[in-house]
Design goal:
By secondary structure, this protein is α+β, with helices and mostly antiparallel strands. It is globular. The model has no long low-confidence stretch (mean pLDDT 94). It has a five-stranded antiparallel beta sheet. It has a four-stranded antiparallel beta sheet with strand order 1-2-6-3, with helices on one face. The protein has 13 helices and 17 strands. The protein is 34% helix and 21% strand. Helix 1 crosses helix 6, helix 6 crosses helix 12 and helix 9 runs antiparallel to helix 12. The two termini are 27 Å apart.
Amino acid sequence: MLRYLTAGESHGPGLVAIVEGMPSGVEVTTDGIAEQLARRRLGHGRGNRMKLEKDELEILGGVRFGKTLGSPVAVVVRNTEWPRWQKDMSPDPGGEATRTLTTPRPGHADLVGMQKYDTHDARDILERASARETAARTVVGYLARQVLAALDVEVLSHVVAIGSVEAPAGNVPERGSLDRIDEDPVRCADPETSAAMVEEVDRAKSDRDTLGGIIEVVVHGLPPGVGSHVHWDRRLDAKLAEAVLSVQAMKGVEIGDGFAQARSRGSVAHDEIVPEGDETFARASNRAGGTEGGMTTGAPLRVRAAMKPISTVMRPLRTVDVVTKEPDVAFRERSDVSAVPRAGVVLEQVVAVTVANELLRMLGGDTLGDVVASLERYRARLDEF
C-alpha cells in the first residue's frame, strides 16, 4: 500500500514528497514527473505567479536506472524564487519579515490558522495552506499513475463548469482523450462550452473577481471489486471523497450522478444489470459512477468536485486587522482568476493515488510483475464467474 508525506512552504526553498510502498520495477523518470508538473500549469485564467513559479526537480532516492527499487521514493521540487524570499522565509533564528500580514483573507485558512497556531502574521499559515503544495502531490500522483499504466488503468479529468457556464450532461471523455482535453484552454471536453467558459473567465478578470467551478475525474479500466463493503474505512467512495476534499478550495464531492440520483425515483436511479456475452455482466447505464457498495463495478469511475472561487480577490473583501482589531480590507497575494482547469490535473493525482493504493491492497506483490500477474489471475477468475 502507498503512504506519502509532503513537506515545504509555498515560498520556501522547495517542496518534498516521500512515497513508501511503491513496488519495484516501476518506470520513473524526471521527464515524466516534469510533464505532470507542467500539466498543473494549464488553463485560461492563470495569474502571473504561474509564469514565475518554475519547477526544478530532483529524485533523491528509491529509483535506479529509471526504475523503482521498492524502497521509499523521495523527490524535491525546488523553488526558483527562493533567493527573493530568503529573508522572509529563512529557517534560521533571528529573522524578521519585511511585511507582516495582519488582515486575513475571508475564505482562506488565514484567520483560523492564526488563531489555532497563535500567530499574528498570516504568512505563517498561508505558506503551507497554499495550493502550491499540490506540486508535491502531483509528484506522488505521477508515481501512482505509473503503477496504473502498467495495469492498463487510465485517469483523466475535464472541466464540467466554470462559474455559471456548464457543459451538457452526459459528456464523459473516452479513454485516450486526455491530450485533446489538455489542448483546450479551459480543459473542457465540449468546444462550444469551452468558448463560453473563456468568456466567463475574461469577464471575471475585468471585474477583478474570481471564479470556481466543477471538475470531473474519470478512471477507465478498473475491474469490478476494487474497494470493499466490509468496513467503513475500506469503502472506495469514502476514500475518494477524502482525497478530493483534501485538495485546496474543494467544497463538495459526488460520485457519478449522486445529487441527481437524490432527486430521482429508485426505478430510474439505478444501473440495471444486463447480459453481455455468455459469461459476463454489464450495466445499462452508469449513474452510480462506477461504484456500488463501496466497490468498483467495472464501469468507468466518475468523481466530481466542486471548487470554490479563489479567496485572494483583486477587489479585496472586508476583514479585521488582528493587531488593531479595526475593520480593514484583506491583503492580496499573486493569484489567478480561475484555477479550475489546472485543479483538474491535481484531482487526477489524488484519485490516481487512491485507486492505485486500493489496487495494491487488493493484489499484493512487492514487484510490479507480481502485481500485474495478480490482476491477470483476478480478471481470469471474473471471466469464469
